[in-house]
Backbone:
């Protein structure tokens, strides 16, 4: 296994292991991917302010978010179609978040069902709901999330229309290709 220390290392390894269509879906963004670049640049500008000559024998990274005790200030956010990237990806992510003592947020467009994720863990999880036109379906999703024990709703409003993702169009993940054609391209067949 190659050493993976940085974001670039993860991208390089993923680029070698994943089918191009899946890799591009993960690393790509809408349009010219300007927002993704701006986000990475903003994160790179964040610097920690180390403290010298202080007692670090008892470190505590725990915090409370929305009334929930977290082991550290981290939330595993929703990732659409995570099941494409790893077998039962959402279930694996939910279990990892539970083991780390942090919340997991299930995406509206997950591969695994709300019920499957709920059955795979004991801690409650969060649910992300995109604004969708079909209010009946949205109501059904919310009822299923509540029945599955979701404690927090993450309401996402950033996608009033589907964005053009040029990488996905070029790879055939979106656009005119048939479903079977898109699935074949996922596995680079």
Residues:
């Amino acid at each position: 296994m190659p050493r993976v220390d940085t974001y670039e290392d993860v991208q390089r390894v993923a680029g070698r292991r994943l089918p191009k269509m899946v890799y591009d879906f993960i690393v790509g963004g809408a349009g010219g991917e300007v927002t993704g670049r701006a986000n990475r640049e903003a994160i790179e500008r964040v610097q920690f302010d180390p403290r010298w000559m202080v007692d670090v024998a008892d470190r505590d990274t725990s915090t409370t978010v929305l009334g929930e005790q977290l082991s550290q200030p981290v939330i595993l956010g929703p990732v659409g179609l995570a099941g494409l990237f790893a077998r039962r990806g959402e279930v694996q992510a939910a279990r990892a978040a539970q083991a780390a003592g942090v919340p997991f947020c299930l995406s509206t467009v997950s591969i695994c069902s709300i019920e499957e994720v709920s059955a795979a863990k004991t801690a409650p999880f969060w649910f992300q709901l995109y604004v969708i036109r079909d209010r009946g379906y949205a109501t059904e999703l919310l009822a299923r999330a509540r029945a599955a024990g979701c404690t927090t709703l993450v309401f996402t409003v950033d996608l009033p229309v589907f964005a053009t993702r040029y990488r996905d169009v070029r790879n055939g993940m979106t656009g005119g290709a048939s479903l079977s054609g898109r699935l074949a391209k996922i596995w680079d067949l």
